[in-house]
Amino acid sequence: MQGILMRSLTQRYQRRKNYRAASTVGRVMQYSPHALVGTAIIILMTSIIIPSVWQKPRVGLTDTVAPLIAVVGQPFRFIADGISGMTGITQLRAENDRLKAENVRLKEWYQTALLLKAENQSLKDLLNVIPEPEQSYISTRVIGDSGSSYVRSLLIQAGKENGVVEGQAVMGSQGMIGRIIEVGNRASRILLLNDINSRIPVIVEGTNQKAILAGTNDSYLVLDHLPMDILIEEGARVVTSGHGGMFPQGLPIGKVVKADDNQVMVEPFTDPVNANYVQIIEKPDDPNVRRSIDALKAPVPSSIKQ
């Protein structure tokens, strides 16, 4: 009983002492703020010069003030969280507005594409243009690199049994990467566009200028047989021209990254080194093209040689 009474008296004494201290600080701040500031400076300097003097009071003060700081700081943390949330909402609204504007532009382009498609079809009907056959593909996996320092080629897991024939164009994820040069029953070999022996008839979009795209055994390709006065801009797309009937027209290949008086360099859209799967374009057998190819392969008559 005595112990309980003593603890109660001690607690009351401590509360009264704290109240008096707070009252004293308040009166000092009210009547002599400069004295309080000076005292604080003296205490601060003493703690810096002789840190051991204030170590115990500082620890006790920390224990006493820490809960108060936690309580007082709670509203500020709430405000900070609210400001952060408002900032996030503002950013989300800005992103939403940007996406809405982009969606509107895409819808406009879609409508434009539909109009151009209809106009193109009308012109084709007017001129009795024979429609291009629908393209079909053979999808297969790349099983190895059969190339060397002088030959750039890939092996694929598809052959005659799958409908693969020599000369077909091979597409990567974003553009053409080569053509079929050897066909087995269940595997085939692709000659890549960057092989030094590769030659592809192409056209530079925006100029309608036909050229030959040649490999360099490097990551870039070059355009040959261009007129000297032709102006090629960097960033122009290069696609197959369809000339000769070997490849469909308009297959994407790459873009111009350098154009000067000496050379026009093209960067392929697809790096064949990273190709795991490819698509082989099944070009319908055109009898006229087949006859032209057979005629080119036929021996030259002796009368012509003379």
TrEMBL record:
Pfam families: MreC. InterPro entries: Cell/Rod_1, Cell/Rod_MreC_2, MreC, MreC_beta-barrel_core. The keyword Membrane applies. The keyword Nucleotide-binding does not apply. Residues 142-282 form the Rod shape-determining protein MreC beta-barrel core domain. The chain crosses the membrane at residues 35-54. Gene3D superfamilies: Rod shape-determining protein MreC, domain 1, Rod shape-determining protein MreC, domain 2. GO terms for biological process: regulation of cell shape. Keywords: Cell shape, Membrane, Transmembrane, Transmembrane helix. One of its GO terms (cellular component) is plasma membrane. PANTHER family: CELL SHAPE-DETERMINING PROTEIN MREC. Belongs to the MreC family. Involved in formation and maintenance of cell shape. NCBIfam families: mreC. This is Cell shape-determining protein MreC.
